[in-house]
Amino acid sequence: MEKVTGKRNDTAIFVYDGHVYHIDKRCNGIYRCASRRSLHCYAALVRNQDETYTLKTSHNHPSNETMLQEIELKQEMLQICRETIMKPKDIFDMVCRRNPVAAKKISYRAMRSFLYREQIRHRPETPQTIAELEVALMNYQPIERIYKGKYYPIMAIEQCYSQLIPY
Question: Is residue 130 scored above 90 in pLDDT?
Fold first, then answer.
């Protein structure tokens, strides 16, 4: 049984024998098939006293042996979206090249909106003052390599202008 973080905060999904399960919070030690609603699969997995698992009701769909790798690929794509400024298509292609077997079942079309949404969620906030803009630009990775000359802080420039032009 592999525990993997879910799509929402503080959630988890469980992968066992090629099937994905959610924990049944009503009963301790019972896991229900994640395809319960979409495929009407009422499979139940029970955790025994000795930490083994027994399938009480069988699945009505085949198992997916690459499910764990697919979930890990998706999570890796989202993590890269949070940390870099790469385009979603480039992220998708780079991650899929590492595990082509699991990547066959994931389409860019399905992942595109998730990746864009994750990038938007982790963009820096819009600065409200010039000083906030200066701090944001000094720490903003995409523009690090744009200007190679000497940098003058915005506050120093404002002081120079205030001395030249009396109000």
Answer: no
Segment 153-157 shows an average pLDDT of 63
The two tokens of residue 52 are 């083994």
CA neighbor of 77 nearest in space, from 89, 102, 95: 95
User: What are the φ/ψ torsions at residue 145 (nearest 5 degrees)?
Assistant: -100, 10
Instruction: Categorize the per-residue pLDDT at 154 as very low, low, confident or very high, splitting at 50, 70 and 90.
Output: low
What 8-state DSSP symbol labels residue 26?
Answer: T
Query: For residues 132 and 140, what is the distance between their CA atoms, to the nearest angstrom?
Result: 12
Going along the chain, which residue ranges are E strands?
Answer: 2-5, 12-16, 19-23, 30-33, 44-47, 53-57
pLDDT exceeds cutoff 90 at 89: yes
Residue 36 makes CB contacts below 8 A (sequence gap 6+) with 22, 42
Dist CA 42 CA 60 (whole Å): 8
The region, left, alpha or beta by phi > 0 then psi within -120 to 50, assigned to residue 10 is left
